[in-house]
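anyone seen this seq b4? input:
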Amino acid sequence: MSASTFWFLAVGGTAALTHMAVFALAQHQMWPELANALGFVVAFFVSFFGHRLLSFKDTSTSVTTSFKRFMVTALAGFASNELVFVLLLRGLNMPPMLALFVALVFAAGQTFVLSRFWAFRR
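predicted toks r here
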């Protein structure tokens, strides 16, 4: 396993845990879909800075360019996350935390590919 892959998994895991923790704290105060969005916003910053400083530290793109590209990447990941989350939560009546976990795993692959080959292109 390359260092980039290791750090991507470590940062992604940390961001996913952050997302889930925010969701767990907020889900009883608002609709689950909004708690998912709040978790995404908080985890976005964990993810961006972790990937910029660790996963893709040898990138040749500027911080501003990487941030803009990563925002597009992350929003695409969140769109697929929210779609899967809603389908599992509302369509299959899955428990919210399990639906969120499955949705996060689903979006992780897409985020890696877009991050590696576009947002933090070497």
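The longest helix spans residues 63-91. The two ends are 18 Å apart (CA to CA). kinda curious what u guys think
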